[in-house]
């Protein structure tokens, strides 16, 4: 089971815990309690009633169980908007009473009083953003909300009376579980995908995150905790909480942008590798890759005792096309010929452009007879192509093909020389035809080839190749 699958189970478990604790506290009636240590109801105007906290917590936890289909995402966005509207309405209605309360019990940062409300608003916004597939933005909002959650943690540790209901352990447990469930909404998306992956960069990011949390926490415990002054402890706890949240946001952003930079670098490397092994105009392999595929075919032929053949193509009268239509028309013709050759390839065949109007194909598992039939298929498919010249006339393309079946112990250069000799013989016999080289290395002038004219073979092209070859 992968880390991401574990994260899905953790998300479901955290949502269940948040819902269970919230419902339990609501049923037991403790949701209506006011500040701990203060007379019941005396300063409860400073916060939304804790019963409302329980209801919102259970409601948001339930949103985490909705399916990830369009309907579920729409319900999550509507639910998040309802939570935000409810919390903000409560804050607006109690602004005057909050001011009076600040004058009564003394001023502390607003984060101290509104940690629960702000946390709910941030989690609701994060849930809405992730439902709209803005995963990174939603996860960053959750990390910001952790600062307010940690404020409640420090308040619970300091037994402060100036905190919201989240300072109570049961509410704090529900808040932590709810935050975790929203953070793990889609663990295989956004920044979480980086931290949950198994490669080395993810391990470095996880280590940085642990140090970014543990460092300020340890320093805060050793310094703030040693000062027995409540006000200093409160402010110190807020500083440490904000520092931890800030560190998490910075580390996550650094991990995201580092991964994006790494992805861009890998794309550039793949593009450079492609340029080094492929022809820039047609997208076919170049001569370097053709040699590699030839060597691989030789190894398979020696181990599996199978035949393979090398075909050399040369477009007939291509200089005339360049002269009459220009190099732009010539390039279009080369690209179309490359498409036709690719369409006629079978699995594990290799096509390459050698330069100019010359192409080559390695046919796997093809003896001389089968290679001759396949070459005629290529020839007929190319012969169905036409290009439009500058004068508006259409010019058909033809090609001459030389075939050399690989012989035991033969190198690429030797096979290429025999196929090239057969190609020149096809040119000498009138072009637009297929010639097969003899099974012996001989000079070009002494080549004895089997010549096959286009009209002598009872061989038809499959309809698919005719359709693809007729584009303009």
Automatic annotation (TrEMBL):
Per its UniProt record, what InterPro entries does this chain match? Answer: Diguanylate_Cyclase (IPR050469), GGDEF_dom (IPR000160), Nucleotide_cyclase (IPR029787), Rev_trsase/Diguanyl_cyclase (IPR043128)
Phylogenetic classification of the source organism: Bacteria, Pseudomonadati, Pseudomonadota, Alphaproteobacteria, Rhodobacterales
Query: Which PANTHER family does the record match to this protein?
Result: DIGUANYLATE CYCLASE DGCM-RELATED, REGULATORY COMPONENTS OF SENSORY TRANSDUCTION SYSTEM
* One Gene Ontology molecular-function label: diguanylate cyclase activity
What's the protein name? diguanylate cyclase
Reaction(s) this enzyme catalyzes, per UniProt: 2 GTP = 3',3'-c-di-GMP + 2 diphosphate
Q: CDD domains given for it?
A: GGDEF (cd01949)
Offer one Pfam family short name for this entry. GGDEF
Which residue range or ranges hold the GGDEF domain? 306-439
- Which Enzyme Commission numbers does its entry carry? 2.7.7.65
Q: Which residues form a coiled coil?
A: none
Q: Any stretches that span the bilayer, and where are they?
A: 12-35, 47-66, 78-95, 107-128, 140-157, 169-186, 207-228, 234-257
Report keywords, A-Z.
Membrane, Nucleotidyltransferase, Transferase, Transmembrane, Transmembrane helix
